[in-house]
Amino acid sequence: AEMAVGKGVATVALLLVVSSILGLSGLSKSKLSKSSLITSDISRSSRFVSLQSSGRLGMRYGKHQCSRRRLVRRSVFGDGGDDEPQDPDESLPDLLKQLMKKAADGKLPGDTQITFMDADKFAHLQDLKRKRQKKEEAVEKEREGRTSEALERIKNFDYRPKEIRDYLDRFVIKQSDAKKVLSIAICDHYNHVRRILEDPASARRDYTKPNVLLLGPTGVGKTYLMRNIAEFIGVPFVKADATKFSETGIVGRDAEDLVRDLVDKANGDKQLAEIGIIYIDEVDKIANPPKNDVTTTSGSTFNTRGVQNNLLKLMEDTEVSLQNPMAPQSLKSLLEQGGKEDKAVRTKNILFIFSGAFNGLNEKLKKEHGQEDMISSMFPHFGSRYDDDDEEEERPKRRSYLDKATTRDFIEAGMEPEFIGRVPVRCALQALLAEDLLHIMTSSEGSVLRQLEEDFKGYGIDLKFTDEALQEVAERSEAEQTGARGIVTVLENTLREFKFELPSLPFKEFTVDNQTVVDPKWMLGKMIESVNQTEVRVNDLVSFAEQFGRQHDPVQIVFSPEATVYLANLCVEKDWQMRSYCTHIFKGLPETLKRIYLETGQDLFVITREMAENPQEEMTVWLTLLDRSFEAERVDLTII
């Protein structure tokens, strides 16, 4: 029912409806004044009557719950007390009269919700509520424990740059310059954070963050370096691509979402998020170079200058609201809070790491400094732009000139002067050669070979590689020109068919040699030809019978020799897997055998060729024999 009533007496009108339902004398309608629209939903059954009204958006003042034998009042925003049992002898009419009087006096708002409920149901709801609260408290306690542990680690931060370098050496091969630069920046920054946590007054001093720009082609370890550093230190870490952002956040993401993501990574802890790390890749794609300039690869249609300015604000000391103003739920929350925003995160001590390939800039610098290649080949230590641990014969192969880039070069490439000025630490990473990729596969703790070994071990196959095979993989990976990602590409193309075929064959060991990498199809065909496919299918049939017995114990099945030969030959001819085929054709067998077992006690059944050829018809025959057994003597259904 919809009634035009005054906001202050909305509950009066609702109680009048309830009074008419319960046969009560109502309140004089002369007290209804003003006009507003209130919607009521009334439902009634033998044990339950519900009355709800909606006043202010998202708010509810009070809730009353009672039965004819028990009355309970729950205060939501009133005194904040627990549920208080009232006089069990108080009747519903008396309660309604009291509520109507309070409503007439303006003591109840128009959005009061009143529910008449059976006491047992109310107790059940309260029990569910208590369980939910206990679960939330346990989750919150666990979150606080993790947060306090992380903050304690930062308060005790005492790492030295070489210690961080040594940790990174376990995961990332080469890139000694990048490891050195990052280790120094991390130690400087988190020593500063430690001092702030010890003495909050020191936060008022001027501080220039060592934000870092990593330059280099894809697959050289930029992301991997930062991910391992954040894990080692124990701070929240967020990674994003610069191309996903727009100036307004209407199309694409807003730059401030990075800070909100950091809070999520910190399990909602604002203090921990304020000392986290934000890593933004492909920053060269948001460069805004002059027309006809080829120093970047930017193809974005968004206002890239606006995106840079938004990121610039985050690098400075600013506050970001935890609520996204563009999200509908945030608008609703702001309305409920009277326009006051929720908590904000300060970005002063969030470390920003940027990275990009800057391929166009590298080509430009190559033209300007290309003559140094000839000089370097004659005098290897003159003007070297290579890692100190590189072999001399490797250096001419590394063609990155980004370490020659100056601030002016970045500005000409389309980076805003204010933006690039806030990123004072810059380092160029070198492309990886075959020798580096081989070292990654054999020495890195994060080597993809470990993952492949685990994949094959899941099928009971021991995977091994010869040295010649790894060398061939490394050379092919270098030709991919995608760095360490090329290793995954080459190994995937090499082992894809083996992953598909070998789990169904009786191989317990698989050694990848040079010939396997060069011609994987030939090697796989040779392995398949060496296998007796019929024998494989027979073993799978035995495995199916054993699995059936474990799943439907005490019922057991065995296959007759004729059924075994028939099913094995059929699966070989059709290239079917025995277990999947038997699972399909015998899907009704468990229910049939279970019924026979319950009626007769027989627990062992032999699957004949007739059953294998026409399972549905044979199961019908077995059940027919079972029905007839009630009229005669027990029928033995075991057919041998």
What characteristics describe this protein?
seven-stranded mixed sheet; flat; 18 strands; 640 residues; five-stranded parallel sheet
Characterise the protein shown here.
The structure is a single chain. The chain is an alpha/beta fold. 48% of the residues lie in helices and 12% in strands. The chain contains 26 helices and 18 strands. The strands form five sheets. The chain has a seven-stranded mixed sheet, covered by helices on one side. Strands 9-10-13-8-14 form a five-stranded parallel sheet, with helices on both faces. Strands 11-12 form a two-stranded antiparallel ribbon. Strand 4 and strand 5 (71-75) form a beta hairpin. Helix 15 (434-443) crosses helix 17, helix 17 (467-480) packs across helix 18 (485-501) and helix 24 (589-600) packs parallel to helix 26 (615-629). The protein is flat.
Rounded to an integer in angstroms, the radius of gyration calculated over CA atoms is 37 Å
The percent range for strand residues is 5-15%
Oligomeric category: single chain
Through-space gap between termini: 75 Å
Adjacency order of strands in the biggest sheet: 1-2-3-7-4-5-6
Q: How would a textbook summarize the main sheet?
A: 7 strands, mixed
Unreliably modeled segments? 1-13, 20-90, 294-301, 381-386, 390-396
Total count of strands = 18
How confident is the prediction overall: mean pLDDT?
Answer: 76
Pairing-aware structural class of the strands and helices?
alpha/beta
Q: What's the total helix number? A: 26
Inertia-based shape: flat
What share of the residues lie within helices?
Answer: 40-55%
